[in-house]
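Example (one chain per record):
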Amino acid sequence: MTSASLSSRTILVTGGGGFLGKAIVRMLIARGDKVRSFSRSRHMKLDTMGVEQMQGDMADARALHKACQNVDLVFHVASKAGVWGPDDTYYQTNVVGTQHLIQACRRNGVRRLVYTSSPSVVFDGGNMEGVDESAPYATHYHAPYPRTKAMAEQCVRQAADKNLKTIALRPHLIWGPEDNHLVPRIIQRARRLRQVGDGQNRVDTIYVDNAAQAHILAAEQLALRPELSGRVYFISQDAPVRLWDMVNAILAAADLPPVQRKVSAATACRIGTLLEWIFLTFRLPGEPPMTRFVAKELATSHWFDIRAARQDLGYRPRISTEEGLRRLRQWLQDENLCSKV
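Predicted structure:
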């Protein structure tokens, strides 16, 4: 990349060792920026990139205050993700952590904050087709992740003022090489997967490098156009696909057969409700094979109008889905992940 540095000071990336965080860090390093990562653990790959690393918990206000020293731009990527777990663990990381980070930004004179949110904050369990940023927050959530992400996003938007400029981005279903969440879940469950619903539901996805690029653009535009502060943007491949076609494409990249078995959306939701009750009642470890939230996500359409991101941020997906899948397949082969399943 040939663009100028985003900051004359250090740039902080929370969750810099994670999937999206690491992609953002790579782009910042390529621009010549000085980068600091704040994560729960140390990451060898960040060491090789010359990234300053600080370890700590998002709920630790003192650690975040230290991480924000001599910083004027923060990419807040770290979060507690997943579809199951105690509400408080999600709340402490996603909400309390974001509140602490905003306070740390103010105390250290940080000028810009780009927050990684999620489209699930507006997901009400039904189809979302061509939805734009005017969609209201959901009135009810079936999982702590979207509920706490919605709360955190609102904190970020409300924090926008003359001293701290903020933007929230909503990338949907991030995937690509080094994915440690979506792709592994699909591959690990390949033999047990069942198509939920009729298979016609379309969804947005986003290749990881495109998501990282959108974050860089948001930071650039915050500096150039302060009137954008406090806004939120959907970002995607801008090419909705049938969800189960995408699942099968990822399986094919790992040399695995497509999903053959099916279950109705109503049945999957009933199974999810029952399994949630069993896991909660008997305090079972791990997560249920199906939940209400997952059943609804797998059976409905959720794709978004990204005209605002194109117009305000200049966002265009640089890596096509086809090219992304080629890169994913190459990575899976290089890591010998195809033959391990």
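Caption: The CA atoms of residues 221 and 312 lie 8 Å apart.
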